[in-house]
Amino acid sequence: MDIENAKAQMRKGVLEFCILGILKRGEAYPSDIMATLKEAKLIVVEGTLYPLLTRLKNDGLLNYRWEESQQGPPRKYYSITDSGIQFHSELKNTWDELSYAVKQSQKLQ
Amino acid sequence: MDIENAKAQMRKGVLEFCILGILKRGEAYPSDIMATLKEAKLIVVEGTLYPLLTRLKNDGLLNYRWEESQQGPPRKYYSITDSGIQFHSELKNTWDELSYAVKQSQKLQ
DNA sequence: CATTGAACTATGCAATGCAAAGTACTGGAA
DNA sequence: TTCCAGTACTTTGCATTGCATAGTTCAATG
Fold first, then answer.
1. In strand D, which positions have an atom below 7 A from any protein CB?
2. What confidence tier does B80 reach under pLDDT thresholds 50, 70, 90?
3. Rounded average pLDDT over B7-26
4. What is the CATH number of the domain that holds A75?
């Protein structure tokens, strides 16, 4: 029982919401997404992000297109689909409900 | 990929925080805890709560004592330990950081 | 003694974050 | 050309946790 594990557990399910939120602004490739998450103080590693994007794509919430890069191999640019936008809005409700519940449970100390 | 699963995932790790928060107010037995969580709009079932309490107890974050009940079998009254209080405060930091990160990632739509 | 309800326990599954190792492509240095 | 570094993407396997489900124990009541 350490705090690092607790952090990992709290992230579960939240990353999807964050990533869909980021892609709502416009398409991006994985390194872009990681940089944006890092700005928000959310460190994510490759082994987490890539499988997650693949999962979201397979569920029809994202699409991608290949684009040549100036340097290095081509990149997968991801964009959000209509289903993705709708799912994102449901996730927002879920997150808001959870935030409220946590807040309530911590009240009245 | 359905919203129910997403809810379950988002709860992971958060329940511990909520329960420690509730027990900081004073000792309680499982049905008390479930009722309090329900008030906060957080539905938890036995199969989730009991193993979780056992885990927290084994990690030294909680204690319990048996108490006879007026009706029905005796109850396990749980209370938080000093380690539990400290861990709760670390979880609070973790939760606050995560909330901030989620908020940031959803900005600038 | 049987039944009912409350309280607690145990088992097994599915989902996800993550570490770790691996593959593939490009460009520059030796 | 051959080797190496850097970037981008992929794959495998593990640990943890919420939850469904079923089972056990105990006290009170008829």
1. 6-13, 16-22, 25-28
2. very high
3. 93
4. 1.10.10.10
Q: Report percent pLDDT > 90 for chain A.
A: 80
* A27 min Cα distance to partner chain B (Å): 13
CB B34 within 8 A of CB B81: no
Please state the domain count of chain B: 1
Domain encompassing residue B74: 12-92
pLDDT value for B25: 93
Residue A47 distance to chain B (closest CA, Å): 18
